[in-house]
Design goal:
Length: 83
């Protein structure tokens, strides 16, 4: 199977790449921890992440979406670059 990206004839495909770890971090601190499942488990980060992804998809209408996750998304060398 061959996959092509970009311009195919007169059709342009839209690919959305997400830095999911940073969006999850943002959602964790941006959504109140009062957002909980019926059993009391905090779900603020998951809810915030899914709401944000839903809004991005609605606003930008990508043909494909790739959610990338890097467990070491804030390595020391990156922190050292921050002024």
């Amino acid at each position: 199977m061959s996959v092509s990206w970009g311009i195919i004839g007169s059709v342009t495909r839209r690919l959305m790449l997400l830095d999911t770890a940073s969006l999850y971090f943002r959602a964790y601190f941006g959504v109140p921890d009062s957002v909980r499942a019926p059993d009391g488990t905090p779900v603020n980060a998951v809810r915030g992440l899914l709401d944000f992804i839903g809004r991005l998809v609605h606003d930008h209408r990508p043909d494909e979406l790739v959610a990338c996750w890097d467990n070491d998304w804030r390595p020391q060398w990156r922190v050292d670059l921050i002024p």
